[in-house]
Every structure is written in C-alpha cells, then in structure tokens.
Amino acid sequence: MMRSAGLAVDRPAVHAVHCLVDDLSMLPCERESGRVTFRCICQNGYVVGLGELRSDLRPEDRAIVLDLGQITILRSGDLSLLVELQRHARATQRSMELAAVGSDIRKIFTITRLDRLFTLSN
Predict the structure, then answer these.
(1) CATH code, 43
(2) How many other CB atoms are there within 10 angstroms of residue 120's CB atom?
(3) pLDDT by residue (tens digit) across 52-84?
C-alpha cells in the first residue's frame, strides 16, 4: 500500500507513479498498457492539477482516465479545463474517460450538456 496526498493506493499489479502538479501537492496516477489514470483530488474547493495534466502525458499514453471519485464539486474553471483536456486528447488521437463520477457531479454534466462531450462512468 502506498500513500499519496492522503489517499491510499493499493494496486500491486499496476505501476504507480506521482505526477508533479505544483509545489503543494502531487496528483497520483497509474500507468498500465497505454492507459493512464489520474486520481483527481480537491484542494480548497478546486480540482488540483487539471491544467498541468497535458504536460504529464507521455507519448505511449493512448487512453486518459480521470478518476473523479474524490470530487464533490466542480467549478466553471474546472469544467473549462476538462473541456480543454478533452480537445487535446482528441487532437492527439487519445481517448478520455471520466470515471467514478458521483451523482451530483453527473448532474452538473447533464445540466451543462457536457455529458454529450465526455464518456462518463460510475
């Protein structure tokens, strides 16, 4: 078991690394077979590190998964960064999925009609 940003990561079969987000926090990520999963965290009411994710992508990362399981609120700036990341993913022939989307977060995507742009999973 590994600890990062207060989260326990227990996946021995997956190579876990930490992607530098800023001086204050690290955004945990896991890479396996061309798929990179970022575990999004909330700090001071904002999703940490969305703007920096593009620079953390490697050429072999063909599928991007953002785990929103710890996120209980999304602000307009967060939504804007998600849209920008989705556009970047498509422009570089990558897929992108938002995983562990809670019901309150899903409502935000439905109301804004962004559920048509993103692949959302529970």
Answers:
(1) 3.30.750.24
(2) 17
(3) 888 889 999 999 999 999 999 899 999 999 999
